[in-house]
Amino acid sequence: MELIQQPDLSVNIAGLELANPVLLASGTCGYGAEVADLVGLSLYDSVPGGIVVKGISLKPRLGNPPPRLAETPCGLLNSIGLENVGVEVFLEQKLPWLRSVNTAVIVNILGNSVEEYAELASLLNVAGVDALEVNISCPNVREGGVAFGADPEMAARVTKAVRNASIKPVIIKLSPNVTDIAVIARACEEAGADALSLINTLLGMAVDIKKRRPVLANVFGGLSGPAVKPVALRMVWQASRAVNIPIIGIGGISSWQDAIEFFMAGAVAVEVGTAVMVRPSVVQEIVSGIGQFMEETGAFDVCSMRL
Asked: Is 74 part of the annotated catalytic residue set?
């Protein structure tokens, strides 16, 4: 009797063990507890393979003034301004709950200087934090406000500083607002990144024609949702062929078919964000759909689907 090999949805990213390749994206699921009942975060059998918590800075941040959200025909503009409770409150009040759920916990970090990134990484060398995702779309206040992720040298400096300060797997989250994503990806790999996640949001804006002013108080915002998927797929394809470290795909994923496209383009895992805000059950649907597709096509793991 021939034994049929069952597909293996588990993923190992530089020592980070995921039960399945679907994560909750940073900025769309708070610190986990806010969406636990909706997306299946529990002590025994959590649905997502991991959660990337809301970006954390050294000190609390109030974020931008409202309005901070604007719907688009095929996505969402946000200008939250990286509002968060700060690392001290996160460690004292948010992390204890996160330690209770049966899923990987990845902490997104952000800073305005290389030193801030390094200090955050050091403070998060604690139990319950399984990996760091480093947001390099933040402005470098010492270099005139240019985003760290827009320049290969600055991206490498942040990566190296976090890598030296952290005992956790380091995932660098890349900005799409660059000329050549492959150059940035290689710079981060050479500086010690264990993995990359991409893409962060695209810059966009909306105008209220009745009020004759921008919809967002901050004028510009980050565009997410289905509209950005083709751009994200292209960049994942390019980055995955430029580096030898794992890629986590982000951008417009709202179905299991979308996730499969990212795996075929070169990603080993995906993050789902905006879609969860519309339909929280989408996480379960994506995980189930991936498993069924693998059974039907004979794929034995995620990596075997790469084109």
From this structure: no
